[in-house]
């Protein structure tokens, strides 16, 4: 049968068929927004930051600071004071610390626009911690940490736990020592932890809660949460090295914010270097309690427990 | 499939069918990003065992169709996304969603009445009963239609109304990333979709050869599904597809124009639809309406067929439409840091997670690039001793238009990924006679 198609044309066609292509498109333009951020903690003075947004593909890493805003803070409905600008978008109320149970509201006037947000400082959750002996089934034979939280007495309680460590390391054997600080993800099989950010650990009956674990508020009674971690506790022997546990109680809106940030971080399509991160990710906004702007203003209390401190 | 037809008399005819279908669909992808490897898997298994009986009773100027259908559906949809090179076993963990069984029974009766040659009235009532995981859903689905040739062979009007119930939902992801559509069934928590549609139109024939019609429709839908924000997130242990969805409503309105030229030598069809389809979900987009993923404002289809001889023909199809909608960030900002502590006296370092947060002001806020392509095919048949053989030469996307399969951001640039440029094909068919 004659097709009327030369061999040359056929090879050309086959070559074109095997192509896939990437074509650049213009990115849609939209106006900038104002961003108000601040975290209230009784161990720090009341402060917040004000910046503007950037286009998503901008190469800038520094967000434009808002230096000319008038910012006021209210405590339980009464004016507490006007915040002073400290540079780089930061506003502070000197020598004024938020109190547990206090309701704090901030209003930032930027031109004709007023951004506002409000939150309540929660009490600190009581807890006890027991460190067991080293366990052979744990990573690096690390001990188990048994965190016991008493019943909440019907009060809503949002508790998060995180770990951090400082460690020296050398790039080459015998080379100069460099210091590394990082967070450490809790590893646990406890049913009392929220699995929203859990990933099953390979070959272990443990889940990795990166970067921090959330206690499921549905369980109101007394609970003991066993967990461990990856970095070897016996590695941290030198003076200056340490491993810390942080237990935090946050407000309801702060809890919602943290959860939304973790979900958004894991769903981002692009990583910090502009490359592919999660090609199957979902578009996810982070929670905001700021009126007329973006960002988050929330409250928390925290307590640190030193798990290991180097002495050599 | 087994079929049994029976004629009871000059007016009553019955058709019974027993069928079994087994459908399996699997996509598994492995994507290596800069710092991580992702393994994605979506599966859809639908097994149906069905019996139905249809009766037709002729009454002169009218006809009554009635019957029943009973189907046992087995659904096993799942969508999983795991992180890490070693995560192969995670995709096949036995605690993924167990299959869903739906027992679907239906009774229906449709009555067609032609009081005059140029008037046709049709009314029907369908009743569905669904049973899934101890929960029962049921509903009546009335339908009415009217066709009237006001000016016989020249022009007429038509109108219709229908209520429908559907036990299959389509889940679509709104992000820029790879499309991961999934068909899922009703469950004891997720009810069937319900819709009401009204349409009215005019139609006619021009110069006895050109058929035309213009129809306007409006459709309202309830119990639609969409992923919750972050819903297609990395698979969490114990989380199943129905833990990640929200239920809401939708609406669609449009006008359809159709021009058709039948003929032995040359035939053609031109259709154009202008429509708008939206969704509104309490948990999504702050409860505000947003465009549906596949809302295609303009859709044009043009097809033509020319017969050189009785056995040789050329077909052409041109299709063009808006590309649909996806969600894209319009600004980025730094959020309040997470409570992650790096105790070097420097305070918090939780800003690593919040230094570049995307702001999506609205769901499905970006329209994909316009889609268009031309397909051509040439068919040649020849009578052989034992039957007819047919060669078909076809070219899909003749001018190799780079239509967007999906959008993505890379090297700080927005790009579209094209999957199917020009694709030629050859096929051979033989029909034994």
UniProtKB/TrEMBL annotation, chain B:
InterPro entries in alphabetical order: TonB-dep_rcpt-like
Alphabetically ordered keywords of this record: Signal
GO biological process terms, semicolon-separated: siderophore transmembrane transport
Molecular functions (GO terms): siderophore uptake transmembrane transporter activity
PANTHER family recorded: HEMOGLOBIN AND HEMOGLOBIN-HAPTOGLOBIN-BINDING PROTEIN 1-RELATED, TONB-DEPENDENT OUTER MEMBRANE RECEPTOR
Protein name (Swiss-Prot/TrEMBL): TonB-dependent receptor
Organism the protein comes from: Rhabdobacter roseus
């Amino acid at each position: 049968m004659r097709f009327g198609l030369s061999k040359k044309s056929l090879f050309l066609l086959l070559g074109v068929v095997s192509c896939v292509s990437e074509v650049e498109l213009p990115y849609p333009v939209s106006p900038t927004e104002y961003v108000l951020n601040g975290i209230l903690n009784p161990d720090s003075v009341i402060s917040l930051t004000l910046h503007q947004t950037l286009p998503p593909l901008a190469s800038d890493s520094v967000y434009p600071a808002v230096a000319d805003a008038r910012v006021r803070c209210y405590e339980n409905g009464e004016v507490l004071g006007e915040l002073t600008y400290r540079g780089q978008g930061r506003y502070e109320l000197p020598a004024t610390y938020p109190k547990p149970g206090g309701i704090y509201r901030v209003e930032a006037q930027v031109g004709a626009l007023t951004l506002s947000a409000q939150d309540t400082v929660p009490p600190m959750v009581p807890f006890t911690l027991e460190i067991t002996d080293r366990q052979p089934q744990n990573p690096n034979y690390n001990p188990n940490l048994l965190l016991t939280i008493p019943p909440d007495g019907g009060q809503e309680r949002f508790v998060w736990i995180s770990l951090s460590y400082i460690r020296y390391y050398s790039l080459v054997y015998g080379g100069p020592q460099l210091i590394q600080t990082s967070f450490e993800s809790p590893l646990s099989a406890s049913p009392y932890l929220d699995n929203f950010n859990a990933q099953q650990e390979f070959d272990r009956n443990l889940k990795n809660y990166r970067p921090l674990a959330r206690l499921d508020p549905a369980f109101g009674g007394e609970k003991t949460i066993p967990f461990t971690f990856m970095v070897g506790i016996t590695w941290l022997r030198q003076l200056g090295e340490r491993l810390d546990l942080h237990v935090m109680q946050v407000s309801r809106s702060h809890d919602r914010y943290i959860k939304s940030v973790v979900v958004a971080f894991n769903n981002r399509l692009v990583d910090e270097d502009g490359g592919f991160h999660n090609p199957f990710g979902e578009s996810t906004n982070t929670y905001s309690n700021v009126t007329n702007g973006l960002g988050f203003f929330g409250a928390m209390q925290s307590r640190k427990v030193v798990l290991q401190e180097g002495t050599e | 499939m087994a079929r049994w037809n029976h004629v009871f008399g000059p007016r009553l005819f019955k058709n019974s069918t027993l069928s079994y279908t087994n459908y399996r669909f699997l996509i598994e992808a492995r994507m290596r990003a800069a710092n991580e490897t992702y393994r994605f898997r979506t599966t859809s298994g639908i097994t149906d065992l069905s019996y139905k009986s249809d009766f037709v009773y002729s009454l002169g100027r009218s006809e009554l169709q009635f019957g029943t259908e009973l189907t046992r559906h087995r659904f096993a949809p799942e969508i999983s996304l795991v992180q890490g090179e070693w995560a192969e076993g995670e995709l096949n963990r036995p605690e993924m969603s167990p299959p869903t069984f739906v027992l679907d029974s239906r009774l229906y009766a449709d009555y067609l009445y032609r009081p005059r040659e140029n008037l046709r009235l049709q009314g029907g009532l369908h009743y569905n009963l669904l049973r899934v995981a101890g929960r029962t859903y049921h509903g009546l689905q009335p339908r009415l239609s009217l066709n009237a040739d006001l000016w016989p062979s020249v022009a007429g009007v038509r109108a219709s109304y229908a209520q429908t119930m559907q036990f299959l939902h389509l889940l679509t992801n709104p992000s820029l990333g790879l499309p991961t559509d999934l068909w899922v069934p009703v469950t004891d928590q997720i009810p069937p979709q319900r819709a009401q549609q009204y349409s009215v139109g005019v139609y006619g024939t021009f110069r006895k050869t050109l058929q035309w019609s213009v129809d306007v429709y409006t459709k309202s839908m309830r119990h639609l599904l969409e992923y919750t924000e972050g819903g297609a997130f990395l698979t969490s242990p114990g989380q199943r597809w129905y833990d990640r969805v929200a239920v809401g409503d939708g609406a669609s309105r449009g006008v359809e124009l159709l021009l058709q030229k039948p003929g032995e030598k040359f035939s053609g069809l031109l259709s154009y639809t202008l429509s708008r389809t939206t969704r509104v979900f309490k948990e999504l987009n702050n409860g505000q309406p947003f465009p549906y993923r596949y809302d295609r404002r303009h859709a044009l289809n043009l097809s033509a067929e020319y017969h050189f001889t009785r056995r040789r023909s050329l077909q052409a199809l041109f299709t063009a439409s808006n590309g649909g909608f996806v969600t894209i960030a319009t600004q980025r900002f730094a959020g309040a840091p997470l409570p992650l502590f790096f105790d070097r006296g420097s305070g918090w370092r939780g800003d690593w997670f919040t230094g570049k947060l995307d702001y999506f002001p609205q769901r499905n806020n970006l329209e994909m690039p316009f889609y268009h392509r031309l397909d051509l095919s040439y068919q040649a048949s020849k009578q052989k001793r034992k039957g007819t053989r047919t060669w078909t030469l076809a070219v899909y996307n003749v001018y190799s238009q780079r239509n967007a399969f999906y959008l993505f951001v890379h090297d700080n640039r927005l790009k579209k990924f094209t999957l199917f440029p020009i694709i030629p094909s050859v096929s051979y068919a033989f029909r034994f006679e």
